[in-house]
Amino acid sequence: MIIVTYNINSIRIRIAELKQIAEKSNADIICLQEIKVEDSLFPFDEVKSLGFPYIYISGQKSYNGVAILSRFQLYDVQAYEIIDSSHKRHISAKLENGVEIHNFYAPAGGDIADPIINEKFDFKLRFYEALIDWSNEAKNSNRKMIMAGDMNIAPLENDVWSHKQLLKVVSHTPIEVELMEKLRATLGWIDSSRHFVPASEKLYSWWSYRNQDWKKSDRGRRLDHIWLTPNLASCLKSSYIMKEARDFANPSDHVPVVTEINI
DNA sequence: ATGGTTGGACCCCAA
């Protein structure tokens, strides 16, 4: 089974890119973030025609919004409102065999890395504390879980273009990195991208729009992640980041993470 | 130190 996570930054203007991604990845399941559309305006017909008849969404107008697209039926679908009831940032569904898929869009956190001055950063930290509680609920349960999404944190030194220059930049501050590691450690989550790429190697999934040549400056960050619970470790077959998607005609600033699992 | 771009809404906000 091939699972993809992709921050699409508006699904309605990026159907052509989604098509390319579906074809190149041969995805069975695509977790989307920032669909930026309310449920009633979701482009169901266009997405179905890409080979995903099963569509599970938690949308809102203008901001946020998550969706799971699937080639086969999923079960026990739940949409959550972590902390703030107006933010649609988490949807989950189960495979027929009971494996859980959780799709997240973590808050970006604003510009200033201080929770007292910047309430968006405070919200991001509280969101992660809530995620840690959510993950801890699965402790000792042996639930098989996949979590995918735009987590808006780049945890390792080589997950950003300059560790030193980004230490005070939201997405790579020590407090965020510590929270993400605390989340990872709850269940011993496996980072599928880093499972195949050593920590010494640069690896990014996002490049800002605010560079005239994203490839030349290459100031990327790895904000998008697919994690597995340890009881799925033996199923993890491969993973890659589809960097070429950043060069599509009308690209998102994020590119897809693609993970293959034998389940 | 600053500003650079994009998307969706509305005459600005979030990323």
Descriptive key words:
alpha+beta; 263 residues; 6-stranded mixed β-sheet; 6 helices; 22% helix; 14 strands; single chain; DNA-binding
User: What structural category arises from helix and sheet content?
Assistant: alpha+beta
Name the CATH homologous superfamily: Endonuclease/exonuclease/phosphatase
Tell me the overall shape: globular
Uncertain residue ranges: none
Count of domains = 1
Mean pLDDT: 97
Q: Which CATH class applies here?
A: Alpha Beta
Number of helical regions: 6
The count of DSSP E runs of length 2 or more, i.e. the number of strands, is 14
Radius of gyration: 17 Å
Name the helix and strand elements from N-terminus to C-terminus, one letter apiece.
Answer: EHEHEEEEEHEHEHEHEEEE
Q: Within the CATH hierarchy, at the fold level, what is the topology?
A: Deoxyribonuclease I, Chain A
The CATH architecture term is: 4-Layer Sandwich
The largest pleated sheet is described as: 6 strands, mixed
**Measured distance between first and last alpha carbons:** 6 Å
Structural features, described:
The chain has 263 residues and is of the alpha+beta class. Helix content is 22%, strand content 25%. It is built from six helices and 14 strands. The strands form three sheets. A six-stranded mixed β-sheet has the order 3-4-2-1-14-13. A six-stranded mixed β-sheet has the order 5-6-7-8-12-9. It has a two-stranded antiparallel sheet with strand order 10-11. Strand 6 and strand 7 form a beta hairpin. Helix 3 (119-136) packs parallel to helix 4. The radius of gyration is 17 Å and the shape is globular. The mean pLDDT is 97. It binds one DNA strand of 15 nucleotides through loops.
